[in-house]
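Re: the 203-residue chain
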Amino acid sequence: MNMFKCKEETLFSKRMTKTEKFWRRLPFTTFFDSKFIDNSLDKKLIENVKKNDLEGVEKSLLNGAKIDARDENKKNALMIALENENYKMAELFIREGINLFVRDKQKKMALHYAAKVGKDLKFVSLILNEIPYKKQIKIINLQDRSGNTPLHYAVMNSNYYVVSNLLQKKANYRIVNNKGESSYTLAEKIGNQNILNELNRYK
């Protein structure tokens, strides 16, 4: 009986496809572990964001990926979309209720990323419009691991309209980063006269 059984098993394994063999080898507990499934979906979501694949992102979310999934640097999907200057994708994540207050490994928030890429106001406005005014002042002046505020990044990238908007919303240009640079001293260093003129209005 044992020999017959072994022969049957051998014949059966030969008939299996490579895919079937893979799933048969995969531990039962891993295959049905919700953490394993969720993690796979979350990774796929982040991959799609990095590829600027809006359709893929929508499918990932429909399949159950968590909106607040993060990559190895703790960047969430919104931060990556902002880095890629993908407005439609950033808009989607905000509409779906992504957390605007999380920080990545460098202690940056979504607003830091928006201030970096915003040649106009659309990215910064997208975020600030979702935040009550009283909270805006605190968030606008938050420093990352390098000591930079969103205003620092707006100045560094010569984003005049973002600088002007952040100053109107009480951004503090006197805050210094880890190198001892304020937004004002950075503007002097870069030599952007328009930004210097705007900063001088708030002196």
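The chain has 14 helices and no strands.
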